[in-house]
Amino acid sequence: MEDQEFQPYQEVQEVEELIQEEIDNAFKDVKTQVHTFNSDDPPEVKAMQTMANGSTITTITDTSATKEVISDIDEKTEKDVLSSSISPIPGIPGAIPTIPPEEIPNIPDWVHIGWKQVADINVNDPNNISEEDYYNQILGEFYFGKLWLNAGVVFVSIFVTWFVTILGGGLGWVIIICAFVASYFKISVNRFYRNARSDISRELAIEKLETDTGEESVEWMNEFLRRFWLIYEPILSASIVQTADGVLVASTPGFLDSIRLTTFTLGTKPVVIESIRSYPKSEDDIVVMDWKLSFNPNDLANMTKIQMARKVNPKIVLTIRVGRGMVGAGIPILLEDMSFSGLMRIKLKLINTFPHIKTVDLSFLEDPKFDYALKPIGGETFGFDIANIPGLHSFIRDQVHATLRPMMYSPNEYILDVEALMGGYPIETAKGVLKIKIYGAKELRNTERFGTSDPYCKLTILGTKELARTKVVNDTLTPIWNETFYILLNSLTDNLNIEIFDFNELTKEKLMGMATFSLPTLEENPVQNEIQAPLSFDNKSCGQIRFDAIWCPVAEPTETEPNPESNVGILRFAIHQARDLDPRLSIVGQYNPYAEIFLNEKLVYTTKTIKRNNSPIWEEAVELFVTHKQNALISIKIFDSRDLVADPVVGSWSGKLSEFMSEVASRNDWFTIKDASSGKLRLSGIWKPIILNSSSFDCSYVDPIGIVKLHIKNGKINKPVMGKTDCYVKIKVDGDYRGRTDIIQDSINPEWKDEIFYIPLHSERELVELVVWDYESTSKDKKVGVTEFSVDKLITKNEDGTLTSKGIIEETSQLTLENSQRGSLTYAASFHPTLISEKATKENENTTIDELDYQSGVLVIHLKQAKMEKRETSVEIIVDNGLFPSAISEKCKKQNPKWDQIMEVFIKELDWSKITFNIKQFNDKNPIGSVIEEPASLIEKCKESNKESGGDNGITIPISEINNATIDLNVRYLPMNYKLDPSETIENMGILHVKVQNAENLIGVDRSGTSDPYFQFLKNDEKIFKTKTVKKNLNPVYDEEFVTNVFSRLRDTFVIEAYDWNQLGPSKKIGQGVFNLVDIPTFEAIERKIPLINNNNNNNNNNNSSTVPSSAGSINLHLRFEPQMISKKRITSGTFMTATKTLTGVISGGGESVVKGGTFMVGTGANIVGSGVNLVGSGAGSVVSGFGGMLKINDNTTATRSIKSQEVTESPTEVSPPSVLTNTPRSSSTETTSHFIENIESVSRPELTGNLILTLIEAKELVAADAGGTSDPFVKVKINKKEILKTQIKKKTLAPTWNESVSIGDLTPGAASSSSIILYVKDYNMVGKDEEIGEYELKLWDHIKLSNNNKVGDTIVKDIWVDLIKVPNGKLHIKLEFTLKAGKK
């Protein structure tokens, strides 16, 4: 009965064996290979070899196609075998393209391809081998591994213990040996239990399938995998080899020659799915399963005889090559007997569109178990498994778990985006662009023990690679960066970390604070402006940071609409390989090539170096954010890596991005290498357009929306520690320089006059920062305090989107520094919009506006590049009579600089404005060249040039003072309906011509009833002119003239004081009058009678306290005002300022020039002392008592008076009217006295004389005469052995600045008496004689040379550095201004 019941089961088993035998016969020629390679082959060739070694599914296989490569075949046969071996596998999805056989280098005969060689199976039919041989082989291996090996280990351990004892070893050595033996047996037993557990589990799973519905066995899938694995293993191995070998090449340390894969196989046993458990109660679009997986290649259960005969375990051999060339050697590292088991949760997110699976989330529910045998030395024969070292096996296991736990151990998940993968984009491709603008931070903590921190900002995600970094702002706790970054993101699932560090060059940088921004919030709100994120450090608040974040995703195509056309997007650019590089530049004929990728001539990526290969395969890709696809230029340079010399370029390629994408679309991916006789590059690219968020994401330049008119009025500085301060204010908008005020010396309550700035704005959210500095002449300027305001409080935004002004807002803001109050600053500000906005343009498309009809507007300057052999250059832009630049470019380090920078300046009056481009080098104060243009002319030239070229090429302008130098720029003009205040117009400043005609009915204060009257003229309380004295006359006639600069007709005050001259006592004031210039017409001569008032009684002296005003007569003046641009004075400058433009011409600036039309007028006050005359100016100065005709002029002087030399008199000579300065270029004279005019012979002009103004500007590189390493220098000027000037003493400096002048009148060109002027530079000593530290003999007529074209009124200007004698390398900076006038008849 039992036999009958067992018979059906036996019949079924026999049928299964027959089926299995048929399957084995069908698959007997399907092979899984052990992939063995040449270590020098690149990853792509290794991948092709692994794929080529796969087999197709067929019942009859031509074994010659997989014939093993042996050493005795001839060259033709070897080529045929290789061609057959690497042919592509038809019908296998996912197969990567192969390289044509003729392009693959010959494989050495010692290389074995295929897993059969490792298993030692030949090409004959395995059925010819007897069944007994199979079982003997398998059982013998089993017993040798399980019994004889264990017995051998016991014997060896006993022998080693005995031997160590014989050599004198003690108990410690015995313990060490026992530890090794115990580690071995522990690992061996664990592996035995693992194999046994796998067999038992499999049997239990079969039984459980019938009784338990929770965990389902999938033996049908395992059976499918066992067969499919033989087909898929080559493709999987190819992918792994290509990735791993590429990483190894890129990660090879410098002391090793190479690290390469030489053997690789995953074996014949696939991964086994032991069970699957499903969770049906999950959401409808979520599938959740728990998969129990194992990979145990040593398991022999359920294997047929043929499968056991062909069984190959996983095996990886890594060869490390040490040394170079012929002296190198390879060290194999063997990894085998790998096994793995674990429980993984798989979660599928389903979608309606293809591929219907959005994401796959993978997570291990428990720590997986794995095992391996790693033999770093000795290989297969003598290799020692490092797992037998006590403690090392567990250490490696713990390190693997520690690495994988945050990645994919529960509750962490590894997310695989199947939709993106199947959609054609790589998994790690960017999903969009994050535009983040970092404005600044405030209230930071100071991490410096001495001084103030130098903060910079760094952006990271999950502490990974740094994404972006701002510039370093020195010495501040309220940094303003105003920098914009475009960051490519693969997802929005993480947080963005914003870290602020204190920059240190020598020590470790300290974290000042960190803020976190949640990227997932951008999915719902992609545009987030004005984010105020708190900063924290050690869970304590330490300030806040302000930034914008705008997310712009990649445009995804839909079923009905393709990708939209966009000029802005992400380019995924891949460089695959090069072929047949030109070997001429290599001595040995082989390169170590690497490639650099450039976008618009900017280096964006560098590939790894492939050693000794003229056909390198890189297979690397980089993603680039492109703002203008049509104009973008992609270029590649291929270099040969060399150790001791510079890497030469062996080939290059370049092309426009639009043309490159067209080639890619036409399936052309091979491009010819330029600058070489041979070679090609295989490139590819994917263009992903970006969805723009309207105008909030604009990668191009944004026109200004208007200007802020800012008037800096006064300040109040807390009392400094020592003395007073020399204050000035710097203006910045979002960290960019916009201007600065002049210096107010020696004051803690500075007041600025006419310091008005016009600041272009691009957004109503911009921040204006006002920084007060204390000027230091010999050291770095010190910051006093900072205040700021947002321009949005000046602007009203209307419903239609237009912007209007809220009017003038005046504020007194607190100055703070390092969170402490340092004083206050008073300013007034107002907003003025531009005329043409984007909205207005759209609404009035048919309306044409001639911008030149508007006098005021913003001039947008695109500074492109310059042609000049100068390094470290920048450009400063000065508008009109500005004392300091309105805009400064970045510094370019290279010759022929390329700035490509856009700057804006405000033009008040287009018809009369002047714009100057000063070229600066290094940190020099003086420019090395300049360009001076009228904005109206510049606009016209650029419009005409752009119209002819059809683009925005602009114009090229020569640079004066630099030979053959030019600058390229383009300008646009944005007009404004701005109404100038009368104080801002050109008619408010200019030159006033005054002729003193006569006085009437003056007061007689002498005993004779008459007076000896003279008049003194004061401008803004500073004396500018004094008439001669007319004896005993109450109606004197003077008929004298003088001129003076007027900076503001509205604010400048003019006072006339009448004095009675006394020979013995002080002069007595007998009257005073006041007149203003507001109602004086321009360019017209008018007569004015100015009434005089006497505040004292007529017959009393100056001590009478009566203040009853009474009439004191009148004075008749002849006045004429000429509007003209007047340069301001710079207090600390070494440059002598003057009138810069009249209504008919423009000055060229400093240097050598010929000025037409009159006397050069300077300063705002004079110290005049003549022989027998007591005239004291506005400041202290040396007394000139023995030499008539010398006039000392301080830096504050605006009018000069010429006194005839050799004739001491109180009667001044006639002063010519001021010059009309022409647009003549100045020559370079900053470091040399060699000028082109010096090479021209001076023409004798005896009919002419002239007045000379000698200005001592500064000195440098003086001798240190004091013990402290400095000097107290001053200069004495002598002519004919008589001292005419002694400058102020500058304490403790070797580079003093004086800026003091002296005037010498009636000099005859070529006269020996005035041809030599001696300049003595001395060191002041309080006790003892002053020490001479330098001397220069000024031979005037060697520098001032006349021609036949010179005439009366011309002024010759010479600005030079001269070498001092007696001082090595000492130099003195002087300026000569010689004005011609008619000589004596």
Automatic annotation (TrEMBL):
<feature type="domain" description="C2">
    <location>
        <begin position="552"/>
        <end position="671"/>
    </location>
</feature>
<dbReference type="InterPro" id="IPR037761">
    <property type="entry name" value="C2A_Tricalbin"/>
</dbReference>
<dbReference type="Pfam" id="PF25669">
    <property type="entry name" value="SMP_MUG190-like"/>
</dbReference>
<keyword id="KW-0677">Repeat</keyword>
<feature type="transmembrane region" description="Helical">
    <location>
        <begin position="170"/>
        <end position="187"/>
    </location>
</feature>
<feature type="domain" description="C2">
    <location>
        <begin position="1232"/>
        <end position="1356"/>
    </location>
</feature>
<keyword id="KW-0445">Lipid transport</keyword>
<dbReference type="GO" id="GO:0061817">
    <property type="term" value="P:endoplasmic reticulum-plasma membrane tethering"/>
</dbReference>
<feature type="region of interest" description="Disordered">
    <location>
        <begin position="1202"/>
        <end position="1232"/>
    </location>
</feature>
<dbReference type="InterPro" id="IPR000008">
    <property type="entry name" value="C2_dom"/>
</dbReference>
<keyword id="KW-0812">Transmembrane</keyword>
<keyword id="KW-1133">Transmembrane helix</keyword>
<keyword id="KW-0813">Transport</keyword>
<dbReference type="InterPro" id="IPR056910">
    <property type="entry name" value="TCB1-3_C2"/>
</dbReference>
<dbReference type="GO" id="GO:0071944">
    <property type="term" value="C:cell periphery"/>
</dbReference>
<dbReference type="GO" id="GO:0006869">
    <property type="term" value="P:lipid transport"/>
</dbReference>
<keyword id="KW-0256">Endoplasmic reticulum</keyword>
<feature type="domain" description="SMP-LTD">
    <location>
        <begin position="214"/>
        <end position="419"/>
    </location>
</feature>
<dbReference type="InterPro" id="IPR035892">
    <property type="entry name" value="C2_domain_sf"/>
</dbReference>
<protein>
    <recommendedName>
        <fullName>C2 domain-containing protein</fullName>
    </recommendedName>
</protein>
<keyword id="KW-0597">Phosphoprotein</keyword>
<dbReference type="InterPro" id="IPR031468">
    <property type="entry name" value="SMP_LBD"/>
</dbReference>
<dbReference type="GO" id="GO:0005789">
    <property type="term" value="C:endoplasmic reticulum membrane"/>
</dbReference>
<dbReference type="Pfam" id="PF00168">
    <property type="entry name" value="C2"/>
</dbReference>
<dbReference type="InterPro" id="IPR017147">
    <property type="entry name" value="Tricalbin"/>
</dbReference>
<feature type="transmembrane region" description="Helical">
    <location>
        <begin position="147"/>
        <end position="164"/>
    </location>
</feature>
<dbReference type="InterPro" id="IPR037765">
    <property type="entry name" value="C2B_Tricalbin"/>
</dbReference>
<dbReference type="Pfam" id="PF24920">
    <property type="entry name" value="C2_TCB1"/>
</dbReference>
<feature type="domain" description="C2">
    <location>
        <begin position="691"/>
        <end position="805"/>
    </location>
</feature>
<feature type="domain" description="C2">
    <location>
        <begin position="410"/>
        <end position="532"/>
    </location>
</feature>
<dbReference type="InterPro" id="IPR052455">
    <property type="entry name" value="Tricalbin_domain"/>
</dbReference>
<feature type="domain" description="C2">
    <location>
        <begin position="972"/>
        <end position="1090"/>
    </location>
</feature>
<keyword id="KW-0472">Membrane</keyword>
<dbReference type="GO" id="GO:0008289">
    <property type="term" value="F:lipid binding"/>
</dbReference>
<keyword id="KW-0446">Lipid-binding</keyword>
